[in-house]
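Students often ask why inverse folding is considered easier than folding. One informal answer: many sequences map to the same fold, so there is more than one right answer. In these notes we will look at a single instance of the problem. The structure comes first.
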C-alpha cells in the first residue's frame, strides 16, 4: 500500500483520537458499574495486589470471600488495557481511560479497511471505493456508541477493536484453498556454517500459516475481551465451509483442516494460559454463572445468594412468558442498541443490508461478511438464550463488530443511492460526498448529545456515591446517636450495597452485592462475609421497603439512617443476626 493511501487511515485515527480525548475529559468517574469493576481490578493489579476485585457481585462461583479473585464470569482484557497506562502514569481513572481511548481510536482505520475491501468486492471504481472507505472510517470515528464506550473503560471497546481486526484477517486466513500436495523440499546448499536458509517447503508453509496464526491470536484477544468471540470463530468456520464446498476433489476436508489448524494454534497460545488460571483459581475453566444467566427470571437473579436461578424456575413461567421475554429482548437489542444510540447509521445500515443482502460484498468471503454473520449470531443467541440478562447490557457490550458492519453497509447504501440519483439526473459521475456528509451531519450532534448526557449523569453519580462514602468514613461513636452503633466506632471491613462496584471504588474497601432475597437470607449473607452494614442507594426488588416497614425485632441494631445529598439520599442499615422473613 502506497504512502498516500495510508494518509486516510492515519488521519481517521487522529480524528477518532481527538474526539475521544475531548469526550474523556468530561468523564471523571466510571460511568457504569462494569467500568468501575475493570478499573478497580486494574488498580489492584498495578499496586501489587494481583487480579483481585473489591466488589463481589456474583455468588455463583466460590470462593465466597471479599476481596475476591476477579473475573469469575467476565474477562480481563479491559483491565489489562487500563493497567498499562496506570502503571506508567499512576493508578487514576484518567490513566485507565488513556488505554481505552487509544485502543478505541483504532476502530476508525479498521472500519476504513473493512469499507475499502467491501467496495472493491462490489466492483466500485477507485474514486467510489475511496469515498466508501473514508465515509466508513469517519462514521466510526464519530459514532456515539463507540465514543462513549471508549471513555468508560470496559469490555466493549476491546471486543469492538479486536473483533473487527479478526474479521479483517479472516479472508486472508482463508486464502486460496489450493491443493496441499507435497511441497518442494529443496534446501540451500550446506556451507561450513550450516544451511544458509530454511528449506523452501518450510518457508512456503510458514508463509501460508502466518495469516491463520495471526487470526487465531486476534480471536484470542477478542475472547479475552468477551465470550461473544465464539461467534466470530463460528463465522470463520462458516466461511471456511463455504469456501471448501466450492473446491473440487477429495482433498477439500484436508485443505479445510490445514487452514483451520493454525487458527486454533494461534488462539490457544493466548487463551490457554487464561483457562489454566481460571481452573486453578475457580476450579473450572468454564464460568460458573454463564449457564445460570440463561435461566434468569428477573435481572435481580444475577445477584442471588442462596436462591440461585434454576431450569425449573425458568420453565415454571410457562411458554407464553418465556417467548414474550425473548421477543422483548430482541426488540430491545434492535431498537435500544442498534438503531437509537447509533442513529442514523444503524438504521440506514440495516435498511441498506436488507435491500442489498445478495450483493457481492456480503456474499463473498469478506470482512463485512464475517462481521454481519457473527453479529447476527450474537444478536439471535443473546436475545433467545439470555433474554433477561441482555436487558442489562449483554448484547450492548458485544454489539460493536455488528455495528461496524452496519456502518459499512450505510456507507455502501449511500453510495448506491447517489449512483442511482446520478444516473436518473444524467450526471457525468456520481457525487460521492453528499451521502456521507448527510450521515455525518446527523451522527455528530447525536454523539455530542450522548457524551454530554453521559457526563451529566456521571457527575451526579460521582457526587452521590462520594458523599455517601465520605459520610461512612466519618461515622463513629460520637456522630451516631443510637447506642447500638457505639460499639462499632469504625467502618466494618465489608459492606453490602445495591451498587457494590461504584461504592467499592469510592470507599476503597470491599463491597458485596445485595441480593433480592428474604431477610433471613440477608442476615446469613451478612454473617458469611462479616458485613453488618447495608447501604441502599435505590429501591430495587424488596429493599429498602422490607427494612423500612417495621422489620422483625432484632433485625436492625439501630434505626435506619439517611446518607448523602438530601435530594437523592441513600439508606444505611445495621443488620442484626436474627433477621427472619416476615
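Output (designed amino acids):
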Amino acid at each position: 500500500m502506497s504512502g498516500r493511501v495510508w494518509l486516510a487511515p492515519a488521519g481517521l485515527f487522529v480524528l477518532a483520537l481527538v474526539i475521544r480525548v475531548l469526550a474523556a475529559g468530561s468523564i471523571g468517574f466510571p460511568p457504569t458499574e462494569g467500568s468501575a469493576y475493570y478499573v478497580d481490578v486494574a488498580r489492584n493489579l498495578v499496586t501489587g495486589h494481583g487480579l483481585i476485585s473489591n466488589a463481589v457481585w456474583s455468588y455463583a462461583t466460590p470462593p465466597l470471600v471479599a476481596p475476591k479473585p476477579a473475573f469469575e464470569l467476565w474477562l480481563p482484557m479491559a483491565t489489562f488495557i487500563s493497567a498499562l497506562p496506570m502503571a506508567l502514569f499512576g493508578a487514576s481513572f484518567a490513566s485507565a481511560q488513556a488505554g481505552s481511548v487509544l485502543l478505541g481510536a483504532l476502530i476508525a482505520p479498521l472500519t476504513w479497511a473493512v469499507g475499502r475491501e467491501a467496495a472493491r468486492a462490489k466492483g466500485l471504481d477507485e474514486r467510489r471505493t475511496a469515498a466508501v472507505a473514508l465515509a466508513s472510517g469517519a462514521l466510526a470515528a464519530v459514532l456515539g456508541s463507540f465514543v462513549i464506550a471508549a471513555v468508560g473503560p470496559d469490555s466493549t471497546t476491546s471486543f469492538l477493536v479486536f473483533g473487527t481486526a479478526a474479521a479483517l484477517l479472516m479472508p486472508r486466513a482463508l486464502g486460496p484453498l489450493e491443493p496441499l500436495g507435497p511441497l518442494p523440499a529443496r534446501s540451500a546448499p550446506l556451507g561450513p556454517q550450516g544451511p544458509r536458509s530454511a528449506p523452501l517447503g518450510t518457508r512456503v508453509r510458514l508463509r501460508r500459516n502466518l495469516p491463520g496464526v495471526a487470526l487465531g491470536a486476534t480471536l484470542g484477544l477478542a475472547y479475552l475481551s468477551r465470550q461473544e468471540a465464539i461467534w466470530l470463530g463460528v463465522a470463520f468456520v462458516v466461511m471456511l465451509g463455504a469456501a471448501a464446498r466450492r473446491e473440487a476433489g477429495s482433498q477439500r476436508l484436508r485443505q479445510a483442516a490445514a487452514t483451520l489448524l493454525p487458527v486454533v494454534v494461534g488462539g490457544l497460545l493466548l487463551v490457554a494460559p487464561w483457562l489454566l488460571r481460571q481452573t486453578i483459581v475457580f476450579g473450572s475453566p468454564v464460568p460458573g454463572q454463564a449457564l445460570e444467566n440463561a435461566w434468569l427470571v428477573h435481572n435481580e437473579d444475577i445477584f442471588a445468594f442462596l436462591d440461585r436461578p434454576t431450569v425449573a424456575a425458568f420453565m415454571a413461567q410457562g411458554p407464553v412468558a418465556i417467548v414474550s421475554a425473548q421477543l422483548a429482548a430482541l426488540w430491545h437489542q434492535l431498537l435500544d442498541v442498534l438503531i437509537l444510540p447509533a442513529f442514523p447509521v444503524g438504521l440506514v445500515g440495516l435498511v441498506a443490508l436488507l435491500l442489498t443482502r445478495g450483493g457481492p460484498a456480503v456474499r463473498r468471503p469478506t470482512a463485512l461478511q464475517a462481521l454481519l454473520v457473527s453479529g447476527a449470531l450474537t444478536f439471535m443467541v443473546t436475545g433467545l438464550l439470555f433474554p433477561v440478562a441482555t436487558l442489562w447490557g449483554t448484547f450492548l457490550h458485544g454489539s460493536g463488530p455488528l455495528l461496524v458492519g452496519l456502518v459499512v453497509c450505510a456507507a455502501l447504501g449511500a453510495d448506491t443511492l447517489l449512483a442511482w440519483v446520478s444516473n436518473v439526473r444524467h450526471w457525468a459521475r456520481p457525487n460521492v460526498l453528499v451521502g456521507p456528509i448527510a450521515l455525518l451531519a446527523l451522527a455528530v450532534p447525536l454523539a455530542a448529545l450522548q457524551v454530554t448526557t453521559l457526563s451529566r449523569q456521571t457527575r451526579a453519580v460521582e457526587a452521590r456515591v462520594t458523599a455517601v462514602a465520605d459520610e461512612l468514613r466519618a461515622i463513629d461513636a460520637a456522630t451516631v446517636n443510637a447506642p447500638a452503633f457505639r460499639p462499632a466506632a469504625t467502618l466494618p471491613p465489608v459492606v453490602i450495597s445495591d451498587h457494590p462496584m461504584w461504592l467499592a471504588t469510592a470507599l476503597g474497601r470491599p463491597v458485596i452485592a445485595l441480593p433480592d432475597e428474604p431477610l433471613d437470607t440477608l442476615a446469613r449473607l451478612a454473617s458469611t462475609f462479616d458485613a453488618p452494614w447495608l447501604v441502599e442507594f435505590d429501591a430495587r426488588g424488596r429493599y429498602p421497603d422490607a427494612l423500612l416497614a417495621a422489620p422483625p425485632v432484632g433485625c436492625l441494631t439501630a434505626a435506619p439512617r439517611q446518607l448523602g445529598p438530601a435530594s437523592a439520599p441513600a439508606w444505611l442499615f445495621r443488620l442484626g443476626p436474627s433477621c427472619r422473613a416476615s
